[in-house]
Specification:
about 425 residues; alpha/beta; five-stranded parallel beta sheet; four-stranded parallel beta sheet
Length: about 425
């Protein structure tokens, strides 16, 4: 066991230690009892100033974890063991406050500070330290922990670490379940007339065939996804957009549609399914409760998970709203404008409410790759998209992390714009996951 001594404890220090060290498979204890720390014969880490006792590893603290408020921060990034680091505090094996730096990233401290919004009114990724310093594509906190584990092993050869396996959760946002089905007469007539005006005979044939029951709707990939997950023994997580009013960014199938209800019920039989709060719910708090109740009635079981539509996430209001609605897990920790590690971390962790200066019961599952980012925002080709997906698989696996990806059924569907995407996605599964015989 590793015994960590800190002359002063604080909610922030206790939170970050309890978050990080289990992630490296390490049994530990945090104490402010100096006498017990001196007498302890096992591995010891001194989190404090001044000269440490011989044979003890030391991290000199910055002030962040002992503060209670929020103030402007200007982290100065330098290189440590070949990786970016900040909150430098001195020389030694660990010359920066690893705990404070990790807390800054996981708490999303910078998102509480004044910042420029993007075109959707969200925290713009260009504001982030990770983007500006070039480490957005790396789970930096996990990398620091890997280095810490190596240093601890060198200092204390008898220290035992548990092995944590890499895992992968494919997730899906059902923004638009079908291209033609359940769209209503007015929308289908409008689509038909547009195709006729453009003389798009292929689309006219497709639409007529689907509506007559002769062809499968091009967005209906749910059976194929079921087979894919079963073949590679993967457990996906779906999120359903169930806005009552279809307007603006909320273009979902109306939740009163019987076919949609049957689809959701079928998916919920074998998969986890959560709510995809509408864009409108970000302006009208009561809508989230309504949408959650609709999903609850469809599945017949409590809804506990969510992911924000368009990743509309605002600190701390969004997460507080989710907690107030009884949600216990959220999959929105990532950007809706670029792929990467928003919190520089690739394991689930509990959200820390920085304004209230306390941890919460809401567990965050960070994602690092989304198909819509690759195509619409980064404008990647199919080959570039595959390479990027490979990168996030490899870097997450290298730190025994939890890889979470986002796809949309309508982007994987049979459309000219996304030709080859479903094949690319399946090839990714074939390359990295053992087929279930």
């Amino acid at each position: 066991m590793l015994l960590i001594y800190a002359p002063l404890n604080s909610p922030r220090l206790a939170y970050i230690v309890d978050t990080l060290l289990p992630g490296v498979g390490l049994e530990y204890a945090l104490t402010s009892d100096l006498e017990a720390f001196i007498k302890y014969k096992g591995a010891r880490l001194y989190y404090g100033e001044g000269e440490a006792t011989a044979g003890v590893m030391q991290i000199v603290p910055a002030v962040l974890l002992y503060e209670t408020g929020i103030r402007q921060q200007t982290p100065d990034v330098f290189e440590w063991r070949g990786h970016p680091a900040f909150f430098k505090t001195g020389d030694g094996a660990i010359p920066f406050d690893l705990f404070a730096a990790a807390f800054y990233l996981l708490s999303r401290y910078e998102e509480y500070l004044p910042h420029q919004k993007d075109c959707y009114g969200r925290f713009a990724h260009e504001n982030s330290l990770a983007y500006r310093s070039g480490f957005l594509g790396q789970p930096l906190v996990n990398i620091w922990l890997r280095e810490l584990r190596q240093l601890l092993t060198e200092h204390f050869p008898s220290l035992v670490f548990d092995t944590r396996p890499f895992c992968f959760t494919p997730t899906y946002d059902i923004d638009i379940a079908w291209r033609y089905k359940c769209k209503g007469i007015q929308k289908n007539v409008g689509a038909f007339l547009r195709s006729l005006l453009l003389m798009d005979l292929g689309q006219i044939s497709e639409q007529v065939g689907v509506l007559r029951g002769l062809k499968q709707d091009p967005f209906d990939l749910f059976g194929w996804l079921d087979q894919l997950h079963e073949r590679y023994t993967l457990k996906p997580h779906y999120f359903a957009l169930l806005a009552k009013s279809q307007q603006g960014y909320d273009k979902n199938i109306p939740p009163g549609c019987r076919s949609l209800k049957k689809l959701i019920q079928k998916l919920a039989e074998q998969n986890d399914i959560g709510i995809h709060p509408s864009w409108q719910s970000g302006d009208r708090s009561g809508l989230l409760s309504q949408e959650k109740n609709v999903l609850n009635n469809m599945t017949g079981r409590p809804v506990t998970s969510s992911r924000q539509h368009y990743i509309r996430l605002s600190m701390p209001q969004t997460y507080r709203c989710l907690i107030n609605q009884g949600l216990t897990s959220d999959y929105s920790m990532g950007y809706g404008s670029i792929n990467g590690f928003r919190a520089s971390y690739c394991l689930p962790f509990y959200w820390y409410d920085l304004e209230q200066n306390q941890p919460t019961t809401l567990k965050l599952f960070p994602f690092c790759w989304m198909d819509a980012n690759a195509y619409f925002e980064q404008r990647y080709s199919l080959a570039e998209t595959r390479n990027e997906l490979e990168h996030y698989y490899n870097v997450t696996k290298s730190v025994a992390g939890h890889l979470i990806t986002i796809c949309h059924n309508h982007l994987l569907g049979d459309q000219k714009l996304f030709a080859g995407w479903s094949q690319m996605y399946e090839e990714f599964f074939i390359s990295h996951f053992e087929k279930n015989a």
